[in-house]
Design brief:
InterPro entries: 23S_rRNA-intervening_sequence, 23S_rRNA_IVS_sf. This is Four helix bundle protein. It holds the Pfam family 23S_rRNA_IVP. The protein is 83% helix and 0% strand. It has 103 residues and is an all-alpha fold. It has one domain: 23S rRNA-intervening sequence (de novo design (two linked rop proteins), Up-down Bundle), CATH 1.20.1440.60. The longest helix is centred in the C-terminal third of the chain and has 27 residues. It is elongated and about 45 Å long.
């Protein structure tokens, strides 16, 4: 697999991850606290793919590295929110664990 093919596959995978985050966030309770986390996780979880896509369209190697670092940071933040959701038992583990694994 060459770099362009890898990049296309990872763009697709990160977009699918963003969709899974949106679906996961819709399972959260309708409390004020959960709405705050829903907003945070949706923003960080969908940002991973958006920044990766931008990295693939970067104008320089420096810009590429910067966008990749942002994607990594957003993935770390998303994992943090998923861990909080898990610790609070807001979503069943069989639904949450695959999303955590993909993060």
């Amino acid at each position: 697999m060459d770099n362009k093919e890898f990049a296309k596959k990872l763009e697709f995978r990160t977009r699918q991850f963003g969709i899974s985050i949106i679906k996961t966030s819709s399972l959260l309770p309708q409390t004020l606290e959960a709405k705050v986390i829903k907003n945070q996780i949706t923003k960080s979880g969908t940002s991973i793919g958006a920044n990766y896509r931008e990295a693939n369209r970067s104008r320089s190697q420096r810009d590429f590295k910067n966008k990749i670092k942002i994607s990594e940071s957003e993935a770390s933040e998303t994992e943090y929110w998923l861990e909080i959701i898990k610790d609070l038992n807001w979503i069943e583990n069989e639904k949450l664990n695959p999303v955590i694994k993909e993060t």
